[in-house]
Amino acid sequence: MNKVKDKLQQLDKQIQNIQSTLGSDHTKQHVLNHELALTEKKIGEGINQLRRTKHEMEIKQLKIVALEHEVNHLTHVLTKQQHLLTQHIRARYMMGESPPLKWLLNQDSLHTSSRLLTYYYYIVKSRQTAIDHVHETKRQLTLNQDKLNQELLEQQHLQQQLTQHQQKLGQVKQHNIEVIHSLDRN
Question: In the 8-state DSSP scheme, what is residue 107?
Answer without folding.
Answer: -
